[in-house]
Fold these 2 entries.
Entry 1:
Amino acid sequence: MDGFVYNLPGANPNQQVSNNQVPLVNLSATSDESNRSAEDDEKKRRRKVSNRESARRSRMRKRRHLNELWSMLLHLINENKCLVDELSRANEGYENVVEENKKLREENSKLGKMIGEIGF
């Protein structure tokens, strides 16, 4: 016979059972189903574990990326501050040069008039 054979009362309602006789029922299908069910449960368990680990790695990557972005932000804020300071110094230098240029032009104009008055 295939599979396991058990004597179970009432397994087949159409079969009549006499005093001490119990009908024979083939439970190989039930055994296969329970084996498949156990295998499916194990596959589901392994998949859950795998998914949890994958999610954990994903969260770690996200955390590292976020830390890198924060670090980059701080670096860019500092770099921007340095550039703003440098621009401010350049603008001050420009204003000083414009003012000095204005004074030199006025002085040049005065000297030109003086030369013209002397007659050279």
Entry 2:
Amino acid sequence: MDYRRKRRLTFFTIGLIFLLSGIEYAVILPTIWRYLQTLNAAPYFLGLSLSAFSFSGLLAGPLFGFWSDRTLSTKKIILFANVFEIVGNFMYFMGYSKWLLLCSRLVAGIGTGAGSSIFGFLTRNTAPEDRSTVFAAVMASRQAGLLIGPAFNIFLRLCNFQIGPFTVNKYTSPGLFMCLLWILLQFVILFMYWDFTSQDETCQRNGVEREEVEQEEEEGKPLVGHNELTGSYGTVTSVQSRTSSVANGEVTHVSPPPSPPPEEVNSSPFKNFSASREFLREEVVVLLAAQFITLFNQTALETMVTPLTQKFFNFGELENSIMYCVCGVEVISGFLFVRWLSKRVAERVVLAVGLILCNISCVWCLIFLANPQGGFAWQLAEFIIGVFLQVLGLPFVAVAQVSLFSKITSEKTQGFTQGIRRSVGGLATILGPLWAGGLTSDLYIMLGLMMGLLALLTIMMVVSYERLVAPVTVDNPTGTESED
């Protein structure tokens, strides 16, 4: 199978991985609050369960990223990580107690650590100018899962039967459903995912060009060649030809064979790596802050939404699923727009637009959602506008910061650095639900901190705006000298 077909199938499989992660989130999130209530869990258990998923991913991400950087292999890492997704979702399906439910999210979260290896793989195998487009497509795949997930929930809520000692109902069925999907994905990865590198494309392209050159030389080759006149064949007697030329008083320059590229197979990508030099730079700190603050605010609002809709609008699983489905359509549209926009403007402009939208959203929620006024219709309109604005700004910030981060950090250690970036995001998704879970009855304090963090991030970006650009050269490309 040629390189291009392997590349297309591999990228398609990566899209499926993120699609399933989105489906899992959309299937479980609308029902986990009521699921915990059936197990007599306190309200803070909602924040604990959501945070447990992110906590284990926070720890696993850098480890999986380090593993992929050392081996330049991601397939076996993904297969290994998916085992935790399968086991964790089956534990969620069992659901004997609130503690088992908490542990199930902890185990399943380990599987998300493979995302750092995937982002490192994409960075190594995409050109810098195409990176925003590729990342936007991958993130849109996850949002497509968020869109499709609620549709599955509409059917899963109808389940009510027994499988041996296990009860399958609208609360436990999402775990069984996701367990089966992750098992199917294992077979897809086995047969449709390849660990190729950019050198594979170069070798294939050089091979095609070499064949074309050889064909042209064969067509233009004279009947009697120079080697035949000197009595030599091929390159065996090239030294003899040079000697005879010198003896006759004719000095002919013969180019030495090109030196082979230096062997870097066994060299560690972390040989000259310095964490302080890599991460304690102004532009890197700003992007990591953007990752943390936007995800903290997003997960805090997501944690708040389900209890809020139950309190003010008496929403159940069906209404929440429809709401997440509509949000999924909006986010996918946003990612498609960002994909188009990133080809025309710089990433820092996209990031600035996203921050402006996030600030507007937080101000709206602080004014209208902290203490809703008016009748049912007015309160529902305030809620819809607040959610719409929050979801609208997400694609701009997400794509811009991950694309910029991949360009200003070393390409050789992308798995590890992307793992650190995702761990910062994981820390935010831990603290966000914990912060919101304990303050669902005091929204002014909850939203006030979120507004303060956004204001801080905006100031940081304005001060560091000139530095938020990709450097001319991040790493010395391998094999440049030989190509010259």
